[in-house]
Amino acid sequence: MPVRGERADGKYVAHQIDELRAKGVELVAGSLTDPAGVTRAKYVPLRRLGDFQRSGMGVSPSWSVFCVDSGIAFTPTIGVAGDLRIRIDPATVRVVDDGIAWAPGNLTDQGGEPVPLCLRSLLVRAERAAADRGLTALMGAELECTMVAPDGGPASTGPWSPYGIRTSLDRSAFLVDLATTAERAGLSVEQIHTEYGHDQLEVSLAPGTPVATADAVILTRIVLGRAAARHGLRISFAPVPFEGAAGNGAHLHLSLADKKGPLFAGGDGPHGIRPAGGSAIAGVIDSLPDLIGVYAGSALSALRLKPGNWAGAAACWGLENREAAVRFIAATPGSPHGANAELKLIDPSANPYLAAAAFLSSALRGIDHGFELPAEIPENPSQSATVPPALPTEQPAAIDALEKSALAAELLTPEVVEGVVAVRRYEITTFGDQPPAETARALRLAWSC
Known about the structure:
Residues 119-449 form the GS catalytic domain. 35% of the residues lie in helices and 20% in strands.
């Protein structure tokens, strides 16, 4: 959307241009991430930074229904006619590579108003909805990914030690480059480590406002991709890059506070959870069957979302329970950012703005309706005496549930649901009859930046 006030001032933009030119920037990218979870961009010469804000760069409405393999899933309301605009805020521009800067874009009409399928604007509204209730919302993010060779094959074939010092030091030059590039881009990286899966890596980001965190997720993906390329690697954000291999998650952490303090600490409930905090967690769990198509709805998502994968495949919550969809982190000295709820079942094929909006909005719905916190599942849900209800994890079932859900339409709007369903149904048609190994090969780099 157009930015008014100081940031729209010509002197401010001119100052930004001078600063970026001093850093060697020649081109500025403005990106959108579509309902299929793919990030796409347009570039302008640095001197046109102000134009990228004022008038924006034209895109077809079909950008909202592009698919993972470059197909287009036209809908009754999105066809070949029309023109929209990507607009950026010059204050959000960050340097991501030699000569290249980037900013998150908003999808607007020609007059500058957000269109229904501007998913970043959807998250802005969810953030405002929290503020209207007197709540402050913060989110943190964890990005799991897999290092692969330039041809998309395995990056290494030798023995892998999960979290091992050898496996990380073997990639030390890349990791140092990644940390340096992230710092230059203004990212607040809290942790980098090699993960359980072969050639798997995780980057953890400090909490921020939901919109800022979703922006940081996209920026981190870009930085990861550019740093990896300088070291002869590519980065896969596929939920499962190789059949039978460990899956990649895209966990989000949510904390909420009102004028009395955090909702997830200082109360009389389990682990200090206050009543409103319990209702927020209950709202998230209650909505999972309807919204799993948002969080993990791609053609590869079901390969990851299985019991035993620590992917949060069970619709329940538990203290530090990695098999529960909602892993609760209590306020202890070991949690420097305080108590929060982590939604584990999100994977990198999800649009981070949409996933964050669904997460936050479902928590607010739980508070609005005063939902009661379900009983905690403290052990492996598959071994619990109280077995949580099954989630529709297979793609056709997940997308059917999303399409039919009045709750999803209420929280995300009918237009957004229609767009997500369209691109995911295209995937069902295109990849549904393929062996999983072929689908993993075809989509290994679909969500890479």
